Amino acid sequence: FIAIQDGTSPDCGIAVKTVSTFYVSAGEEVEVKLQGAELRELDGVKTVVVADDAQLTKTESTRIDPTPVAIEPDKLESDSYESMYVRVSGQIQPAVQADTGSGKGGI
User: Which secondary-structure segment (H or E) carries 72?
Assistant: First the structure.
């Protein structure tokens, strides 16, 4: 899997499932040919699944230094920043499970 992002606004990222290991460094530009690819939800993540790694090409563009998008913890609940490079500002409160009475209670 690789994650690609084309901006800093919400919904600018998507995961790409490769056939074999595809080496790419953060900030390198990758072109994805979508012909024959499928859009699926894998483990709850929107993912482009390519049929062949030949559909992925590193471009000759100059590598950039990616900057994380600053978001508040409440934005993690939505899919808006899925597969994006983010930095969470503020405190994240752990989820608390309710005690179900089964003897296997939550926190």
Answer: none
